[in-house]
């Protein structure tokens, strides 16, 4: 990570996080610099992604979109 680079800090429950981090990376031009594998002290999972500001915003938006999709349709996403 270079000085001045933006950071996207993404956290969610473990299953949602794994799927959503993958989706965020595929839908933005960011790099994974730190992954918090479950179980953490809070039983969540997450990641730090870096890139320019617009890419970090795109990654955050994609992450949120996928977490909401899983939350709203749990059966379809775990088949």
- Going by helix content, strand content and strand pairing, the class is alpha+beta
How many beta-strand elements?
Answer: 3
Largest sheet: 3 strands, antiparallel
CATH fold-level label: Alpha-Beta Plaits
Write the CATH architecture name.
2-Layer Sandwich
Series of H and E elements: EHEEHH
Highest-level CATH class: Alpha Beta
Q: Please, how many domains? A: 1
The number of distinct helices, counting runs of at least 4 residues, comes to 3
Overall shape: it is flat
Radius of gyration: 12 Å
CATH superfamily: BMC (bacterial microcompartment) domain
Q: Strand portion, in percent?
A: 25-35%
Average pLDDT, to the nearest integer?
91
Secondary-structure map with pairings?
Elements: E1 6-12, H1 14-26, E2 31-36, E3 45-51, H2 53-72, H3 74-77
Antiparallel strand pairs: 1-3, 2-3
Helix pairs in contact: 1-2
Protein described:
The protein is of the alpha+beta class. It has a single domain (6-77), classed as BMC (bacterial microcompartment) domain (Alpha-Beta Plaits), CATH 3.30.70. 47% of the residues lie in helices and 25% in strands. Strands 1-3-2 form a three-stranded antiparallel β-sheet. Strand 2 and strand 3 form a beta hairpin. The longest helix has 20 residues, at 53-72. The protein is flat. The mean pLDDT is 91.
List keywords for this structure.
79 residues; alpha+beta; Alpha-Beta Plaits; 3-stranded antiparallel beta sheet; 3 helices; 47% helix; 25% strand; flat
